[in-house]
Amino acid sequence: MAIMTADDADQLDLRIFPDREQLGVAAAADIADELRAVLQAQRAARVIFASAPSQSETLAALAQEPGIDWSKVTAFHMDEYLGLPADAPQKFATWLRTTIFDRVPLGAVHYIDAEGLEQESADAYAALLEEAPIDIVCLGIGVNGHIAFNDPPVADFNDPALVKIVDLDEKSRVQQVQDGLFATVDDVPERAITLTVPMLMSGKRLFCMVPGELKAEALRATVNEWVSTNWPSTILRTHPRCTVYADTDAASLINQS
C-alpha cells in the first residue's frame, strides 16, 4: 500500500470554527453527506471511527443526522489498549458503543479483540479490514501528532502491516490522563493494538476532528512541519480527500512558525 510522502504534497482542507460544538455539527453534517452519497452509489459503506473525547461532539451530532441507512454501514474502530480488564470503562470499544454504536442501527460492528492472543487478534482484524475498501475514516490527532496509536517512535508511512502491536509513547499516555480517561499515567496501559498509517490513509475520505488548546502544537506541526514521522499527522497533507476540523483554540499557533 504505497504512501506518497513528498514534502510539497499539500492537499489538506483545513476548516476552523469558533468552538468545538460548532466544529462537531459541521463535521457531522459533512460526514453524513458523504455517507448518504456512498450509500446512494453502492450497496454498503465501511467506516473507521476514532475513540477520544475530541470526537464526542461530532459523533453525537452524527447520530442525529437524518436520512442515513445505518443498516448498510459496517463500523470499525482504529485502536485498543492491551492489558485492561475486559469490563474496564476506558476501553475504546466501550467508549464507541456508548457514544455512537448503540445510538444508531448499524448493520455490523467489528471490535478489536484485546483479550485474545495479540498477534492473532491483529491479523484477524486486518483480514476483516481487507475484505473491502474503507469508505470513510473519522479520526483525530494526538498531542504528539499520532494518528490512531501511531506515535512518532513506531509510525511508519510504508508499514507493510495493516494492524500491529505497539508500545505507547509517554506523551500519548500522558494525554490519556489529560483527557480525563485515567487518574494517573501509571494507570494507562503501555501497549495497544492499532491500525497502521497506510491502513488509515487507504480510506477514500478522511474527516479529522481536532478541538482544544491541548492540540494546538500538534495542529501547528501538522500544517507547517515537513511530512515525516516526527509528526505522523503530517502525512494527512498527502491524502487527496482529507478535511481537518479545528476550533480556534486548536488553531491558535498555525502560521506562527
From TrEMBL:
Q: Where are the transmembrane segments?
A: none
One Gene Ontology BP term is: N-acetylneuraminate catabolic process
Against InterPro entries, the record matches this protein to: Glc/Gal-6P_isomerase, Glucosamine6P_isomerase, NagB/RpiA_transferase-like
Query: Which Gene Ontology cellular-component terms appear in the entry?
Result: cytoplasm
Keywords in alphabetical order, please.
Answer: Carbohydrate metabolism
- One GO molecular-function entry: glucosamine-6-phosphate deaminase activity
SUPFAM superfamilies, from UniProt? Answer: NagB/RpiA/CoA transferase-like (SSF100950)
Q: Please list the residue ranges annotated as the Glucosamine/galactosamine-6-phosphate isomerase domain.
A: 18-237
Question: Which superkingdom is the protein from?
Answer: Bacteria
Database matches in PANTHER family:
GLUCOSAMINE-6-PHOSPHATE ISOMERASE (PTHR11280), GLUCOSAMINE-6-PHOSPHATE ISOMERASE NAGB (PTHR11280:SF6)
Q: What is this protein called?
A: Glucosamine-6-phosphate deaminase
- What is the source species? Microlunatus endophyticus
Q: Which gene encodes it?
A: nagB
